[in-house]
Amino acid sequence: MARKYTLQQRAKQQKETRQRIIEAAVYLHQTVGGAKASISAIAELAGVERLTVYRHFPDERSLVMACTSHYQALNPPPDPGPWKSIKDAEQRLRRGLSEIYAFHRRTEQMSLHALHDMEEKPILREVLAPYFAYWEQVRDLLASAWEPKNASCSTRIRAAIGHAISFQTWRSLVREQELEDAEAIELMASMLRCL
Fold first, then answer.
1. Is the pTM of this model over 0.90?
2. Which residue range or ranges hold the HTH tetR-type domain (predicted)?
3. What kind and span of H or E run contains 118?
4. Residue 25: which of 64, 77, 78 has the closest Cα?
5. C-alpha pair distances (Å), 33 with each of 43, 77, 112, 114, 155
6. Counting Cβ atoms within 10 Å, is residue 1 exposed (0-12), middle (13-18) or buried (19+)?
7. Helix, strand, coil % (nearest 5) of the chain?
8. Are 111 and 104 within 8 A, CB to CB?
9. In Å, what is the CA distance from 13 to each residue of 7, 66, 102, 185?
């Protein structure tokens, strides 16, 4: 009986150690960026040795996958499903942008570092492929409510919506141009109306 208890305790400790490593990596990725989040820094913050980090995550991909999954579970993007019931294109856009911009605001620090880190760590683009696919689906859902006059107009609508939902667009309008989220949404809605 004592042996079974010891194995269960060991498994529990390993799980807790793994979680501490993931949380330390997420914290560093969000505060200094993944490119600067060394294994040594992650180990120190998690209170473990470097070798322990490598035992749990033998390569960069496994660590990045675990961190991404953990962060996305804590910060899920908006669920576009309910937007489908909004038939009016502009109302659907406004509702979507409202939720999207709240998400961008909430995840701003991580998004800033992730965009920068993708240039230095190509593995991030691979790991984040489902995340990018999500944004394409959001763009297409929002675009589907508009009734373009022709194929050229349809292409411009998709491009404009893709631009409107982008983190970089939100950051430019809110941080650089100092608009409130509501003003940025109104500007993007006006842009779509012009099309």
1. no
2. 15-75
3. helix 108-120
4. 64
5. 16, 20, 8, 7, 35
6. exposed
7. 80, 0, 20
8. yes
9. 10, 18, 36, 47
**Alpha-carbon span 91 to 94, nearest angstrom:** 5
Q: Which residues contact 17 (CB under 8 A, 6 or more apart)?
A: 46, 48, 52, 56
- What token pair was written down for 1? 């009986």
Q: In tens digits, what is the pLDDT along the chain, a chain of 195 residues?
A: 556 667 788 888 999 999 999 999 999 999 998 878 899 999 999 999 999 999 999 998 899 999 999 999 999 999 999 999 999 999 999 999 999 999 999 999 999 998 888 887 788 888 889 999 999 999 999 999 998 778 888 999 999 999 999 999 999 999 999 999 999 999 999 999 987
Residue from 4, 10, 113, 98 nearest 64 by CA:
113
